[in-house]
Amino acid sequence: MTRNRSLSVRSKKSHDSPAEKSAPKHRFTMASLRGMQQPELSKKLFKIIKSENHAIGAYESASRERISIASQISDWGEATGDDSISDISDKIGVLLSEIGEQEDLFAQNLEDYRSVLKQIRNTESSVQPSRDNKAKIADEIQRLKYKEPQSTKLVQLEQELVRAEAQNLVAEAQLTNITRQKLKEAYDLHSAAVIERAEKQILLARHMRRLVQLLDDTPVVPGDVRPAFEHSAQARQVLNDAEEDLREWQPSFDPIASSATEMGSNLMPASVTGDSSTAEPSVVGGEDMAPAQLESPQEKREISGSTAVQGEGYQQQQQQQL
Question: Cα–chain-centroid distance for residue 15?
């Protein structure tokens, strides 16, 4: 509930028609084709991210519908000709409209969570070629051992396999590091968004009950005239209190601890890579990759691109171990 929000949601003639506000339908798009072309390793997470996108669209649609209903309930109350019902229904409409706004804010926060999941998906996509290359070389070695056991190419292939295994070992370590870090970050955002939405909507619902309590529902006999509504000032104060409570709301949950600060820019522990400010980067991932940061759910993440680069020193160490 923003400062100086209108205390009425009565509809105006210039309002858009319901047809203009309807949510877009999901159609077969280029994104659907991209899903078919995803590497095997990232297909499941790609599907989750796409499903979350549909869920976010549903919350956005629910927000629009809730705001529309708020306006309708206010208009209906005015049309009854009963001053008490008109005043109370209009202010109920204001609170319902704010509940709708909270749905929209929830959808925005879920989009932040979804963006973090994309970073895991892109890392999975980048690791797949490393796995495929290692498997391809191993298969070629087995084929030559069966058909041409004396082939001089075997030595070369075995050396290539050692290099491929070393590179894949680095990539797999980076994948597990980024997966754990970003999974924690994603569901930190998700759970925080759920709690914020729930607590704010509970707050608004409690104030709505205060409004309803002001309406006198004592039965009257035919011919009796109901007394004038005497609680207009109290009803207005309820909205002021709701606005104040929303403005002063603070998260009531404990932060989720993270050890990701110990990870270097190449997605490896600082103890392995040494000084991360001077070490050669070794980052697995595609677009939407970004350094780890765990902020409040209201803050957006700027997603940046990166490519797979392997640290030579670390690879040589892995080759020696193999």
Answer: 30
Write the Ramachandran bin of 274: left for phi over 0, alpha for psi from -120 to 50, otherwise beta: left
- The DSSP output letter for 263 is B
pLDDT digits (tens, 9 = 90+) for 250-300: 988 888 888 776 666 666 676 665 544 444 444 454 444 443 333 434 443
pLDDT at 173 over 70: yes
Give bridge partners of residue 304 from the DSSP assignment.
Answer: 289
8: left (phi over 0), alpha (psi -120 to 50) or beta: beta
137-154 residues labelled b (16+ CB within 10 A) or e (exposed) = beeebeeeeeeeeeeeee
Question: What does 93-146 look like in DSSP terms, one character per residue?
Answer: HHHHHHHHHHHHHHHHHHHHHHHHHHHHHHHHHHHHHHHHHHHHHHHHHHHHHH
225 CB neighbour count, 10 Å cutoff:
6
Which tokens go with 55?
């869920």
What average pLDDT score do residues 64-92 get?
94
Confirm if 89 and 76 have CB atoms less than 8 A apart.
yes
- Closest of 118, 130, 168 to residue 287, by C-alpha: 118
Sign of CA dihedral 39, 40, 45, 47: positive
Calculate the alpha carbon distances from 292 to 229, 257, 260 in Å: 57, 13, 7
> In the beta sheet, which residues pair with residue 26?
none
CB 220 within 8 A of CB 84: no
Tokens for 175? 């994948």
Whole-number Å distance between alpha carbons of 153 and 67:
71
Could you report how far apart the first and last alpha carbons of the chain are, in Å? 62
Nearest to 312 by CA among 287, 276, 279: 279
C-alpha of 94 from chain center: 27
What are 126's two structure tokens?
């980048």
